[in-house]
Design a protein that fits this description.
The chain is α+β, with helices and mostly antiparallel strands. It has a domain of 60 residues. The protein contains three helices and four strands, in the order αββαββα. The longest helix has 15 residues.
């Protein structure tokens, strides 16, 4: 009985775990930390945006089955969100995709 409960807890943890493919952290107009395979053009564009209009916050990029979703922290202004969405490359390379014949 304990094994079933332990297995249920592990399954719930794996399903609800936060798993973004990329993370960008900004602090006072500087790109402090990146995680994942961030395209260089997107990274330099985000640095330029943060340098011109300083802000602090986090941008997480999630890959679903059909689309890519950007998730911003609450303290990122709406104008900055739109500028980052405009420079985001929609075809993010992932290693999970196979080549078709």
């Amino acid at each position: 009985m304990e094994y079933v409960l332990l297995l249920a807890i592990v399954v719930v943890f794996l399903v609800f775990k936060d798993r973004p493919i990329m993370v960008l952290e900004f602090k006072d107009g500087e790109l402090v930390k990146t995680k994942g395979q961030v395209p260089t053009g997107f990274q330099t564009a985000c640095r330029d945006i943060a340098h011109k209009t300083p802000f602090s916050g986090r941008v997480k990029i999630y890959k679903t089955r059909f689309t890519t979703k950007l998730d911003f922290s609450k303290n990122v202004p709406n104008k900055i969100k739109q500028r980052i969405k405009n420079v985001f490359p929609h075809n993010v390379p992932t290693s999970k995709r196979g080549k078709r014949a």
